[in-house]
Design goal:
Length: about 190
């Protein structure tokens, strides 16, 4: 029987991609009664840092490669076995893989609506964020906008992000309709 999924995160993936994929995969695995773990030291971030700020199941399971093979589809790579004879599948997600997977697996889209919540943040980090929000924004209603695009451009993905000329009228409209006092803009791209 399949005991779980081991996610080996490529060093190219950012924190948003890691949280997005891992929490969706965790949701799906729990739905089927299997475990999802993140392979230690597989991301570009230190495990200690990830554990300090997020609730990611990073665990070293001491697995060995199992006899037999998996059908090769998408990025599911190898079959492993633990000391108790339980099986794990290794999955190597990338941003491109995640987008491809959404198209062919509706349960991944369902997971999108149920996973990325504040629950992924550690209690300590949630406290720090609340302290920051109170100090900076006080009682004002602030619309948060994250504008990015680097991985879409680097990986030449079909869904390109909006340019500033399309984006800012939408943001202004949402600000007015939502009766926000201010906009908090975050970006990783100098063009925005």
């Amino acid at each position: 029987p399949l005991k779980g999924v081991v996610v080996t995160v490529p060093k190219t993936e950012g924190i948003g991609s890691i949280l997005n994929f891992c929490m969706r995969m965790k949701y799906i695995c729990e739905k089927y009664g299997i475990e999802m773990v993140v392979k230690p030291n597989s991301t570009r971030y230190e495990d200690e840092l990830l554990n300090r700020y997020f609730k990611l199941p990073i665990k070293n399971l001491r697995l060995k490669k199992a006899a037999g093979t998996l059908p090769k589809y998408s990025r599911m790579n190898d079959l492993y076995q633990n000391e108790d004879g339980e099986y794990y599948v290794d999955i190597f997600p990338t941003t491109a893989f995640t987008h491809e997977y959404y198209q062919t697996h509706p349960e991944f889209l369902e997971a999108a609506d149920n996973t990325l919540t504040l629950d992924v943040l550690s209690e300590r980090f949630r406290g720090e964020l609340e302290e920051y929000r109170t100090a900076v924004f006080q009682n004002r209603r602030v619309l948060g906008v994250l504008v990015r695009g680097s991985d879409y451009i680097v990986f030449n993905m079909p869904d390109q992000p909006l340019g500033t000329e399309e984006l800012f009228p939408i943001v202004r409209k949402v600000k007015e309709e939502g009766n926000y006092d201010a906009i908090f803009l975050a970006t990783e791209d100098q063009d925005y």
